[in-house]
Every structure is written in C-alpha cells, then in structure tokens.
Design brief:
The chain has helices at 8-11, 23-189, 195-204, and strands spanning 207-214, 220-223, 226-234, 239-246, 249-257, 262-266, 271-280, 285-292. It has 306 residues and is an alpha+beta fold. The protein is flat and about 150 Å long. It starts with 7 loop residues before the first helix and ends in a 14-residue tail after the last strand.
Amino acid sequence: MSTQITDPNLRRPAPQEKALIPETAKLVAIIVLFLCVIYLIYENFQTKKAIQSEVDGITERLQAFEEDSKLTEASLSSQVAALKEEITGTKSAVVDTKTELRNTAVKMQQARKQTAQELNQALAQKTAEVQAQVQAAKSDADGKISDVNTEVDGVKTDVVRVKADLANTKNQLATAQSQLASVGENLEAAIAKNATELAQLRLKGERDYYEFEFPKKKQIVKVEDIRLMLTKTDSKKGKYNMKILVDDTEIEKKDLLINEPVQFLVGRNRVRYEAVINWVEKDKAGGYLAVPKDKTLSSIGVPIKD
C-alpha cells in the first residue's frame, strides 16, 4: 500500500503574473498612433498640394511675364527702328533747311541793298515834296494869321459883351434863388405837422382840410371825392407807400416820408389836391387832405372835354 504525500503548495495552481499595461490601454494607444499617422499623411498631402498650386501659379506668372517681356521688347524694337528712321529724316530735313537758310540769307542781302537804294530815292523825293508843302503852308499861314488878328479884335469885343451879359445873369440868378427860398419857406409854412398847426391853417381860410386815418394796410379809405389806400409802412424810418384812386386812375407813391406833401390833380378842371401823412405805425397811418376852396382859381389846365 502506497503512501500519498499531500503538499498544500503543490495542490494550488501557480498564480499568473500581473501585466504592467492593460490590454485596453494598448489598444487605445495603437488606435491613436494609427490616427496620428493617417493625419500626418493627410496633412503632408495637403501641404504638397498647396505647394504645387503655388508653384503652378508662379510658373504661370513667369510665363506671362516672359510673354509681356517679349511683347515689350518687340514694341521697343519697333519704336527704336521708327526713331532711327525719324532721326534719319530729321537729319535730311536739317540739311535741307540749312541750304534754304543760306539761300534765303543771300536773297535778303540782295533785297536789303535794293530796298536801301529805293528808300534813299523815295526819301529824297519825299523831302522835296515836304519842303514844297511847308513853303506853301507858310504862305497860307501868313495870310490866315492876318485874318485871325482881325477876328481876335472882334472876339475881344464879344467877350466884353458876354461878361456884361454874365454879370446880368448872375444878378437874375441871385434874385431867382431868393425867390425860391421864399417859396420854400411859404410851402413849409403851408404844411401842418400836428393838430395845432392844422388848426392854424384852417384859420387862413384858403383850403378845406379833412383829417383821415388808415385803420390797416390794403384798406381803401374815402376822403371827400377821392380814395386812398395804405400799401406799406416803415415806422422806424418814418416811410410809407400809398395808392391814390382818383378819376378812375390809380396813382402809386412809394418811399414817402411823414409830413411830406403829396400833390395830385383831380377832376375835369385839374384841381391840385394835397395829402400829408403826419404819423406812421406798424400797420396804420394818419394825416389830412387839403382841398382848395376856390377850385376854379386853383385849376392848372383847360377842362377835359368829352
């Protein structure tokens, strides 16, 4: 009968050695490396493609530049040839011009000599003619001087007469100026600037005076047998515009001053009326109308016939 030896260590299976890197990690690393290799290959392809595109573009530009250079060279060559031809033609023209100038100079010298001879002859002839004319003019002048002396004596007499007439005219002018000044003073006195002066004019009894007022512009105001209308006012400058409606006629007066008399003729007998505006405001004004009492004596013209 055999004896079975039992060893506890022999019965247990030998433990497996533990791996340093897990299989999953290895697999992931391999995939990542594979992807990186693929990316690098793709990137290398794209780079080569871009470089090739740039090389193609540079090649095309070089070809275009070479073609332009050839065209430019051909154009310059043709221009140089044309310039050579033009220079050759210019040289010929210069030679011809020099020849013509020499010929012209010779002709001018000949013509100058001939002209000088003709000029001397003409000058001598003209001198003789002028001397003859001077002698004739001297004789004529002597005769005219005698006549002028006689006329001067007559003019002196006329001057004395004119001086006398001028002195008389000055005296008449001084008298007229004095009369005009007197008339101006009378006219100034015949204009009323306010109610007090208007009352004094009424006392003289020469005219009838009718006061009126424009309540606003563009409105017709009837004064006796005429109509008036205020069209514009300037209160700062004391100016105004006014229309006068008389005998189916419209008379427009512009840029009038206050207290400035405005005279106009009315009716068949042409009687002189006078309107005076004493004050002007923004939209209204006022004054008076002077009408002669004796309209027959105040008439300045013949009555108008139908």
